[in-house]
Amino acid sequence: MTEMEKIRTLPLLALKNSVLFPGLLMPLSVGRPASISAVEAAIATEDKEIIVVAQRDALTDSPGAADLFTIGTRAVIRKVARPKEDHIDVLVFGLERVVIVKIDEVASHMMARVHALPAPDDSSREIEALTLSIIEMGTKFVGMMQTPQSSPHELARLFTSQEDPLRLAYMVASLMNLEAVKEQSLLESPSRLEALRLIHGWLSHEVEVFELRNKITEEARGEMSREQREYVLRQQKKAIEQELGEKNPDQAEVETLREKLAAADLPEDVRKEAERELGRLEKLPPAQPEHSVIRTWLEYVIELPWNKRSDDQLDLPRARQVLDEDHFGITKVKERILEHLAVLKLNPEAKAPILCFVGAPGVGKTSLGQSIARALGRKFERMSLGGLHDEAELRGHRRTYIGALPGRLIQAMRRAGFANPVLMLDEVDKLGRDFRGDPAAALLEILDPEQNKSFRDNYLDLPFDLSKVMFVTTANTLDSIPAPLLDRMEILHLSGYSEEEKAQIARRYLIPRQLKQTGLTEEQVQITEPALKKVISAYTREAGVRRLEQAIGRVTRKIALRVAEGATPLFEIKAEEISEMLGPEPFSPEQGRRELPAGVATGLAWTESGGDVLYIEATLLPNGKEMTITGQLGEVMQESAKTARSYVWSHAAELGIDPAQFLNSGLHIHVPAGAIPKDGPSAGVTMTTALASLYSGKPARSDTAMTGEVTLTGLVLPIGGIKEKVLAARRIGIKRVIMPRANQKDLSDLPEEVRKEMEFVFADRVDDVLKAILPGFVMLPIVPARAA
User: 0.90 exceeded by the pTM?
Assistant: First the structure.
């Protein structure tokens, strides 16, 4: 074995994206633990030698034997520095090429068994020609590079002083910033000729690219357009004005916009469009109308919260406390809000729900949105959609129109200042529609989390992300909301309040608020429980508490007047004083009819203002033939009347009714309060009872109200609004309610004191209703006819 083929074992240092050539110095910054260990192992030896080899893939952080090239460089460490504890800066000098025979893993680094790879020593005229050409192009190349470390002349002298063509090739390659793969191919070249050919081809390409780039630069400088010259002149004018202490207001405005744009956190595509428009604004004379249009557009783009979000307060106990402080009852709605907070706590990127609060006026739908924002710690913005007809009010107008502005949605986001506010769309059921478009159709995109990620306002014409906005809509009824829009929202019903709940709400919220508005305190004015109960039962008749607050406000203003006139502010308001302050009672505590004649039945109805009691009256018309229906009834209610008559007529024998009455007498059905439109299927049971009472001559019980839809075969089907209807019956003193058995589950929505006080009768068929409402009623069995 010769000295050159002698196997040596040295520490191995892997390089990510470079190659060390023999005869050259290379500074290295070593930071990987295995590399630091290898350098320390080499420093500990007398020769301070180390094997330097390139990785096949620079992304491999912990390379193994398979991740390294097999040909590297044996090097000696000339200088060592430690700028940090976890870094070593070393200066290594390449000695010779080596072939890696085997790599051994030690405790913290790799050891390489290598033998020397002799340097090629071939010579030919082609080598001489390539050498001269490389010296010439290399000199030109370093002249174009303008290297700061050394002058081009010094590098050119280095090139000509190299006697070994291979060393020249290595030196030029180290200056060209080549890829590691190309450098490795040069290191592995088996001959001088091949190495020089490689470096000559790469150098020729780089020189051509440099020359072409310089040519393009010179042409661009020589072909300056009129606009560019004007720009230079404007800049010179600006510099002159600054020297003279003068400032162009229009230019100052552009510079202010430029500074704001640079400081704004905008998406990249939005920033590019804004910079393009700012460039147009800079060139436009201020007198042109488009100048103000672009300026206003830029101000909106800069001020919108594209990426600015407020931090959610995901403290669930605090959120529960906030919701309980602001609203009494409505447990299901509060639980749904807390569920969303819990989801955000576990998954901050969760999509915000689209909640729709449906309920009668005054039940707290709008104020609940404010409570949600306070519980989340977000900004709150409210938009009223009532009476909105123009789609452009939501989507904005195009900039081509004079006086164009963004839609209400973008304006609300600008006011909020954050990309994740709580945005309330109030009165969504009262949207209009005409020749200017359909706002409800525009809401389809706005309220869809899959589409509103890139909502485009007509004015901005840029994609704005609305997916983090928590939309809350309110409505009094769902009938007027289009089905596709309704499908995008999660419906949460807010039922009316019982008298006990209204008393609690008045004590906790309404009375303190009205006292604060009048400048009084709770120590100065005390409203007794009997007085408050009288205000609730005799002066208000609603599902919500808005009129109750108005009545309490009238009482506190009366007291404020007395205090302002000099009276001592210590008042205890009793029940007998309420009539003096509020006037005659508009509602009687016992409004229900004490006795019902035959043909009258007590029904329950749902309205936008809550539940209501309807007395359905029926009478026979002697010698008549037709059925007359009055009371401003809708088509569904009229069909219920016809169905009820058909059922009673077809079951006349079972009900003990003479069928001749249907042929010899006409029928008139009337529902009082005829000026108020009424509709819905839930009066079917009541109409059937009224007709059964009329034709049988048996009066219905006056202490019982009923609700439910009836079919032609006598089935009693479920309906909605159970809580509102039961509370309406309770308000007028009726404590017994008949309802479909399928609605038994809805009783859980009623307050516990109401369930204990009321009696409920559940019916599957019409005969169950008639047995419970007509005293002494018995369904007669039908005897089948026999053949004579």
Answer: no
